[in-house]
Amino acid sequence: MESMGKWLGAASGIGEADWKRQTIKVLNDAVVAEWVAGHPDIDRSVLTKNVTRLYQFAKEAKECARCPGLERCPNDMPGHYTRLDVIGAGADASIADYKVPCSLQSTKSAQDSVRARIQSFYVDEKALNREYALEEIVSRDAKRAKAVDAVIDYILNTREKGLQPNGLYLMGDFGTGKTFLASYLLYELAKSGHTGVIVYTPDFVEDLKSMFGEPQKLKETIDLLKETDLLVFDDIGAEHLNAWTRDHVLGTILNYRMNRRPTFYTSNHDLDGLQRHLSFTTREGEDEYRGQRIMDRIRPFVEVIEVAGRNQRGK
User: Fold this and answer.
1) Which residues, including other chains, have CB under 8 Å from residue 266's CB and lie 6 or more apart?
2) Could you report the per-residue pLDDT of 299-311, keeping only the tens digit for each?
3) Please, are residues 35 and 57 in contact by the beta-carbon 8 Å criterion?
4) What is this structure's pTM?
5) Of 9, 38, 202, 240, which residue has the fewest beta carbons closer than 10 angstroms?
Protein backbone atom coordinates (compact mmCIF):
# COMPACT_ATOMS: atom_id res chain seq x y z
CA MET A 1 0.00 0.00 0.00
CA GLU A 2 1.49 3.37 -0.96
CA SER A 3 1.92 6.26 1.43
CA MET A 4 -1.36 7.82 2.52
CA GLY A 5 0.16 11.21 1.89
CA LYS A 6 0.62 10.45 -1.78
CA TRP A 7 -3.07 10.09 -2.46
CA LEU A 8 -4.51 12.29 0.24
CA GLY A 9 -1.89 14.99 -0.33
CA ALA A 10 -3.09 18.44 0.53
CA ALA A 11 -6.83 18.46 1.02
CA SER A 12 -7.28 20.73 -1.98
CA GLY A 13 -5.02 18.69 -4.23
CA ILE A 14 -7.12 15.56 -4.69
CA GLY A 15 -10.29 15.23 -6.72
CA GLU A 16 -13.50 13.67 -5.48
CA ALA A 17 -13.22 10.76 -7.92
CA ASP A 18 -9.68 9.99 -6.75
CA TRP A 19 -10.77 10.22 -3.15
CA LYS A 20 -13.59 7.74 -3.68
CA ARG A 21 -11.32 5.37 -5.58
CA GLN A 22 -8.67 5.35 -2.88
CA THR A 23 -11.30 5.07 -0.16
CA ILE A 24 -12.68 1.96 -1.78
CA LYS A 25 -9.13 0.60 -2.06
CA VAL A 26 -8.59 1.04 1.69
CA LEU A 27 -11.96 -0.47 2.61
CA ASN A 28 -11.26 -3.47 0.39
CA ASP A 29 -7.82 -4.03 1.89
CA ALA A 30 -7.59 -7.49 3.46
CA VAL A 31 -6.45 -6.18 6.86
CA VAL A 32 -9.22 -3.58 6.99
CA ALA A 33 -11.81 -6.09 5.79
CA GLU A 34 -10.84 -8.49 8.56
CA TRP A 35 -11.17 -5.74 11.15
CA VAL A 36 -14.54 -4.64 9.76
CA ALA A 37 -15.77 -8.26 9.87
CA GLY A 38 -15.16 -8.18 13.60
CA HIS A 39 -17.39 -5.10 13.91
CA PRO A 40 -20.46 -6.01 11.82
CA ASP A 41 -22.67 -3.30 13.34
CA ILE A 42 -20.52 -0.39 12.22
CA ASP A 43 -22.06 1.78 9.51
CA ARG A 44 -20.20 2.23 6.21
CA SER A 45 -20.48 6.00 6.53
CA VAL A 46 -18.42 5.77 9.72
CA LEU A 47 -15.77 3.76 7.89
CA THR A 48 -15.61 6.35 5.13
CA LYS A 49 -15.19 9.19 7.63
CA ASN A 50 -12.29 7.33 9.25
CA VAL A 51 -10.52 6.11 6.15
CA THR A 52 -7.20 7.70 7.21
CA ARG A 53 -7.29 5.81 10.52
CA LEU A 54 -8.10 2.58 8.71
CA TYR A 55 -5.25 3.18 6.27
CA GLN A 56 -2.75 3.78 9.07
CA PHE A 57 -4.01 0.71 10.94
CA ALA A 58 -3.57 -1.52 7.87
CA LYS A 59 -0.20 -0.05 6.94
CA GLU A 60 1.29 -0.63 10.40
CA ALA A 61 -0.23 -4.10 10.69
CA LYS A 62 1.57 -5.08 7.50
CA GLU A 63 4.84 -3.55 8.67
CA CYS A 64 4.55 -5.52 11.91
CA ALA A 65 3.91 -8.73 9.98
CA ARG A 66 7.33 -8.35 8.32
CA CYS A 67 8.99 -6.81 11.38
CA PRO A 68 12.62 -5.81 10.67
CA GLY A 69 13.40 -5.47 14.37
CA LEU A 70 12.87 -2.74 16.94
CA GLU A 71 15.84 -0.61 15.87
CA ARG A 72 14.58 -0.43 12.26
CA CYS A 73 10.86 -0.20 12.99
CA PRO A 74 9.25 1.86 10.15
CA ASN A 75 6.05 2.74 12.04
CA ASP A 76 5.30 6.35 12.89
CA MET A 77 6.03 5.66 16.55
CA PRO A 78 8.80 3.02 16.55
CA GLY A 79 7.93 -0.01 18.63
CA HIS A 80 4.20 0.76 18.50
CA TYR A 81 1.29 -0.10 16.24
CA THR A 82 -2.17 1.42 15.78
CA ARG A 83 -5.15 -0.15 17.51
CA LEU A 84 -8.72 0.81 16.61
CA ASP A 85 -11.70 0.81 18.96
CA VAL A 86 -15.33 1.51 18.07
CA ILE A 87 -17.23 3.87 20.32
CA GLY A 88 -21.01 3.86 20.04
CA ALA A 89 -23.07 2.05 17.37
CA GLY A 90 -24.56 2.51 13.92
CA ALA A 91 -24.24 5.82 12.12
CA ASP A 92 -23.50 7.56 15.42
CA ALA A 93 -20.45 5.42 16.10
CA SER A 94 -16.90 6.76 15.98
CA ILE A 95 -13.51 5.11 15.62
CA ALA A 96 -10.72 5.90 18.07
CA ASP A 97 -7.09 5.04 17.36
CA TYR A 98 -4.39 4.31 19.93
CA LYS A 99 -0.67 3.64 19.75
CA VAL A 100 0.08 0.34 21.46
CA PRO A 101 3.57 -1.03 22.23
CA CYS A 102 4.44 -4.22 20.39
CA SER A 103 5.85 -7.26 22.18
CA LEU A 104 9.43 -6.25 21.34
CA GLN A 105 8.90 -2.76 22.75
CA SER A 106 7.19 -4.14 25.86
CA THR A 107 10.11 -6.48 26.44
CA LYS A 108 12.62 -3.66 25.98
CA SER A 109 10.69 -1.39 28.36
CA ALA A 110 10.63 -4.14 30.96
CA GLN A 111 14.38 -4.68 30.56
CA ASP A 112 15.06 -0.95 30.77
CA SER A 113 13.01 -0.79 33.95
CA VAL A 114 15.09 -3.60 35.44
CA ARG A 115 18.37 -2.01 34.43
CA ALA A 116 17.28 1.34 35.84
CA ARG A 117 17.24 -0.29 39.28
CA ILE A 118 20.93 -1.20 39.00
CA GLN A 119 23.77 1.31 39.18
CA SER A 120 27.39 0.54 38.54
CA PHE A 121 30.60 2.30 39.39
CA TYR A 122 33.57 1.49 37.16
CA VAL A 123 32.18 -1.93 36.21
CA ASP A 124 31.99 -3.04 32.57
CA GLU A 125 28.41 -2.30 31.50
CA LYS A 126 28.41 -5.47 29.37
CA ALA A 127 28.10 -7.42 32.59
CA LEU A 128 24.81 -5.68 33.36
CA ASN A 129 23.20 -4.82 30.03
CA ARG A 130 22.30 -8.27 28.81
CA GLU A 131 20.11 -11.21 29.61
CA TYR A 132 21.93 -14.10 31.22
CA ALA A 133 21.56 -17.78 30.41
CA LEU A 134 22.63 -20.05 33.23
CA GLU A 135 23.38 -22.75 30.69
CA GLU A 136 25.94 -20.40 29.14
CA ILE A 137 27.58 -19.69 32.49
CA VAL A 138 27.98 -23.37 33.28
CA SER A 139 28.74 -24.58 29.76
CA ARG A 140 31.91 -22.51 29.58
CA ASP A 141 33.27 -24.38 32.60
CA ALA A 142 31.38 -27.10 34.44
CA LYS A 143 33.49 -26.45 37.55
CA ARG A 144 31.35 -23.37 38.11
CA ALA A 145 28.19 -25.44 38.60
CA LYS A 146 28.35 -25.51 42.40
CA ALA A 147 28.75 -21.72 42.59
CA VAL A 148 25.95 -21.20 40.07
CA ASP A 149 23.64 -23.42 42.16
CA ALA A 150 24.44 -21.40 45.28
CA VAL A 151 23.64 -18.11 43.54
CA ILE A 152 20.37 -19.50 42.17
CA ASP A 153 19.40 -20.74 45.64
CA TYR A 154 20.08 -17.27 47.04
CA ILE A 155 17.93 -15.62 44.35
CA LEU A 156 15.02 -18.01 44.88
CA ASN A 157 15.21 -17.63 48.66
CA THR A 158 15.16 -13.84 48.37
CA ARG A 159 12.20 -13.93 46.01
CA GLU A 160 10.32 -16.11 48.45
CA LYS A 161 11.26 -14.47 51.75
CA GLY A 162 12.43 -10.98 50.84
CA LEU A 163 15.81 -9.37 51.43
CA GLN A 164 18.16 -11.49 53.52
CA PRO A 165 20.47 -10.05 56.20
CA ASN A 166 23.43 -11.97 54.78
CA GLY A 167 25.06 -11.79 51.37
CA LEU A 168 27.53 -13.92 49.42
CA TYR A 169 31.31 -13.85 49.25
CA LEU A 170 32.31 -15.10 45.79
CA MET A 171 35.92 -16.21 46.04
CA GLY A 172 38.08 -17.54 43.24
CA ASP A 173 41.00 -17.06 40.89
CA PHE A 174 41.18 -14.44 38.15
CA GLY A 175 38.61 -14.72 35.38
CA THR A 176 36.46 -17.51 36.81
CA GLY A 177 33.22 -15.54 36.47
CA LYS A 178 32.74 -13.97 39.89
CA THR A 179 31.66 -10.57 38.54
CA PHE A 180 29.46 -12.32 35.99
CA LEU A 181 27.63 -14.20 38.74
CA ALA A 182 27.29 -11.11 40.93
CA SER A 183 25.82 -9.18 37.99
CA TYR A 184 23.43 -12.04 37.27
CA LEU A 185 22.25 -11.95 40.88
CA LEU A 186 21.63 -8.19 40.72
CA TYR A 187 19.80 -8.46 37.41
CA GLU A 188 17.53 -11.28 38.53
CA LEU A 189 16.62 -9.61 41.81
CA ALA A 190 16.06 -6.27 40.05
CA LYS A 191 13.27 -8.08 38.20
CA SER A 192 11.64 -8.49 41.61
CA GLY A 193 11.89 -4.75 42.23
CA HIS A 194 15.09 -4.60 44.28
CA THR A 195 17.65 -1.86 43.71
CA GLY A 196 21.31 -2.70 43.38
CA VAL A 197 24.75 -1.14 43.10
CA ILE A 198 27.94 -2.84 41.96
CA VAL A 199 31.26 -1.13 42.64
CA TYR A 200 34.64 -2.06 41.17
CA THR A 201 36.49 -1.54 44.43
CA PRO A 202 40.01 -0.59 43.23
CA ASP A 203 38.77 2.27 41.02
CA PHE A 204 36.18 3.30 43.61
CA VAL A 205 38.86 3.66 46.29
CA GLU A 206 40.98 5.81 43.96
CA ASP A 207 38.00 8.02 43.13
CA LEU A 208 37.23 8.53 46.80
CA LYS A 209 40.46 10.49 47.14
CA SER A 210 39.12 13.15 44.78
CA MET A 211 35.88 13.32 46.78
CA PHE A 212 37.70 14.26 49.94
CA GLY A 213 37.38 17.93 48.97
CA GLU A 214 33.74 17.49 47.88
CA PRO A 215 31.90 16.59 51.09
CA GLN A 216 28.42 16.72 49.54
CA LYS A 217 29.35 14.35 46.70
CA LEU A 218 31.06 12.05 49.18
CA LYS A 219 27.99 12.00 51.43
CA GLU A 220 25.65 11.26 48.52
CA THR A 221 27.88 8.41 47.37
CA ILE A 222 28.12 6.86 50.81
CA ASP A 223 24.37 7.24 51.37
CA LEU A 224 23.65 5.49 48.06
CA LEU A 225 25.82 2.53 49.01
CA LYS A 226 24.31 2.39 52.47
CA GLU A 227 20.69 2.46 51.33
CA THR A 228 20.60 0.34 48.17
CA ASP A 229 18.90 -3.03 48.61
CA LEU A 230 21.82 -5.01 47.19
CA LEU A 231 25.44 -3.88 47.21
CA VAL A 232 28.35 -5.63 45.51
CA PHE A 233 32.00 -4.77 46.21
CA ASP A 234 33.64 -6.26 43.15
CA ASP A 235 37.30 -7.36 43.40
CA ILE A 236 37.69 -6.30 47.01
CA GLY A 237 41.22 -6.87 48.19
CA ALA A 238 42.81 -5.54 45.00
CA GLU A 239 42.65 -1.88 46.06
CA HIS A 240 45.37 0.24 47.69
CA LEU A 241 43.82 1.28 50.97
CA ASN A 242 44.43 4.21 53.24
CA ALA A 243 43.13 4.36 56.78
CA TRP A 244 40.50 7.00 55.99
CA THR A 245 38.95 4.94 53.19
CA ARG A 246 38.99 1.76 55.24
CA ASP A 247 37.70 3.15 58.52
CA HIS A 248 35.51 6.11 57.56
CA VAL A 249 34.08 5.03 54.21
CA LEU A 250 34.10 1.24 54.00
CA GLY A 251 33.58 0.88 57.74
CA THR A 252 30.68 3.37 57.77
CA ILE A 253 28.90 1.64 54.89
CA LEU A 254 29.29 -1.86 56.29
CA ASN A 255 28.39 -0.81 59.83
CA TYR A 256 25.11 0.63 58.55
CA ARG A 257 24.23 -2.31 56.31
CA MET A 258 24.92 -5.21 58.67
CA ASN A 259 21.66 -6.79 59.85
CA ARG A 260 19.77 -4.45 57.51
CA ARG A 261 20.65 -5.21 53.89
CA PRO A 262 22.84 -7.82 52.24
CA THR A 263 26.30 -6.99 50.93
CA PHE A 264 28.11 -9.12 48.38
CA TYR A 265 31.77 -9.41 47.51
CA THR A 266 33.93 -10.86 44.78
CA SER A 267 37.57 -11.42 45.61
CA ASN A 268 40.71 -13.37 44.80
CA HIS A 269 41.31 -13.65 48.57
CA ASP A 270 39.73 -16.00 51.07
CA LEU A 271 38.40 -14.30 54.21
CA ASP A 272 41.66 -14.66 56.11
CA GLY A 273 43.57 -13.22 53.18
CA LEU A 274 41.13 -10.31 52.98
CA GLN A 275 41.62 -9.64 56.68
CA ARG A 276 45.39 -9.44 56.19
CA HIS A 277 44.82 -7.06 53.29
CA LEU A 278 42.48 -4.83 55.30
CA SER A 279 44.95 -4.75 58.19
CA PHE A 280 47.52 -2.95 56.06
CA THR A 281 47.35 0.61 54.73
CA THR A 282 49.85 2.48 52.59
CA ARG A 283 50.93 4.97 55.27
CA GLU A 284 50.17 3.39 58.62
CA GLY A 285 51.40 -0.07 57.75
CA GLU A 286 49.86 -3.03 59.55
CA ASP A 287 47.07 -2.60 62.08
CA GLU A 288 45.48 -5.96 62.89
CA TYR A 289 42.87 -4.44 65.20
CA ARG A 290 41.40 -2.15 62.53
CA GLY A 291 41.50 -4.93 59.96
CA GLN A 292 39.62 -7.15 62.40
CA ARG A 293 37.01 -4.43 62.98
CA ILE A 294 36.16 -4.33 59.28
CA MET A 295 36.12 -8.12 59.02
CA ASP A 296 33.67 -8.28 61.94
CA ARG A 297 31.28 -6.46 59.60
CA ILE A 298 31.95 -8.86 56.72
CA ARG A 299 32.69 -12.37 57.97
CA PRO A 300 29.47 -13.03 59.98
CA PHE A 301 27.26 -11.66 57.20
CA VAL A 302 28.32 -13.69 54.18
CA GLU A 303 28.21 -17.21 52.89
CA VAL A 304 31.51 -18.04 51.22
CA ILE A 305 31.10 -19.49 47.72
CA GLU A 306 34.15 -20.74 45.87
CA VAL A 307 33.94 -20.03 42.14
CA ALA A 308 36.18 -22.70 40.64
CA GLY A 309 37.32 -23.13 37.07
CA ARG A 310 39.78 -21.74 34.56
CA ASN A 311 40.42 -18.15 33.54
CA GLN A 312 37.82 -17.19 30.89
CA ARG A 313 39.10 -13.71 30.11
CA GLY A 314 39.89 -13.13 26.49
CA LYS A 315 38.00 -16.25 25.39
Assistant:
1) 170, 171, 178, 179, 181, 182, 232, 233, 234, 235, 236
2) 999 999 999 877 6
3) yes
4) 0.71
5) 38
